[in-house]
Design goal:
mainly beta, 4-stranded antiparallel sheet, about 120 residues
Length: about 120
Amino acid sequence: QVQLVESGGGLVQSGGTLRLACATSKSILSRSTMGWYRQAPGKQRELVATITTDGNTNYAGSVKGRFTISRDNAKNTVYLQMNGLKPEDTANYYCNAYRTLSHNYWGQGTQVTVSS
């Protein structure tokens, strides 16, 4: 069973920082494009950032320049460093591992709340 275990969410003031972590297995990390998505109440899940096995990154326009996605292959973990947090960043953040349509896995989510 594929496991993606997120951690690092919490409550932070506007302008603050958080770092999310997604721990998984070596086999998943080495074969998948890893990503972070978020879903706010009443809204659709949206892409935040992705990183390929080659280390190429992609960001949503709303977080570019503030968030950084990275992967530590030695620790089998993907990180999302979030700086300059805004109240509109409040959401449940999900880790994703994608290889094919039938190899597309999600974590359970971690809540991020940014107070104004």
